[in-house]
Amino acid sequence: MRIVLIVFFFLLSGSWFSQEKYWVYLTDKEGVEFNPHTYFDQKAINRRIKNHVPLNHFTDLPLRTDYQEKITHIADSVFGHTRWFNAIACKLTPEQLSEIQNLNL
User: Fold this and answer.
1) What are the angstrom distances between the C-alpha of 50 and each of 37, 46, 55, 56?
2) Which of 7, 41, 44, 77 is the residue whose CA sits 20 to 30 A from 97?
3) What is the pLDDT of residue 67?
4) Contact by Cβ (8 Å): 29, 61
């Protein structure tokens, strides 16, 4: 009986149900609205001005919500994102990865 349970455990933990962690990099931030004066506090705005950093830089824009929704709908779990790299971290099966790769994101 123990051997059957051990074999069953290894089958379940094998490649049939395997998931990997991926960063899904998005292509654009077109149509995203961003107001740095409501997003940043005054100290951050002053620091950017002092260091000649633009207030409305591409990397500060949030991710497109329609892209996030599509990935969230496909992925088993989304566990992070970064607006600076325009990417979403998620766990995907090989089939889910293929489906996301076929999207134009």
Assistant:
1) 16, 6, 11, 15
2) 7
3) 94
4) yes
Which DSSP letter does residue 10 get? H
Amino acid occupying residue 74:
I
Backbone Cα Rg of the chain:
20
Q: Which residues of 44-62 are buried (b: 16+ CB within 10 A; e: fewer)?
A: eeeebeeeeeeeeeeebbe
What b/e readout covers 8-36, taking b as 16+ CB neighbours within 10 angstroms? Answer: eeeeeeeeeeeeeebebebeebeeeeeee
Q: What is the pLDDT of residues 23-58, one digit of tens each?
A: 999 999 999 988 999 989 999 999 999 999 998 888
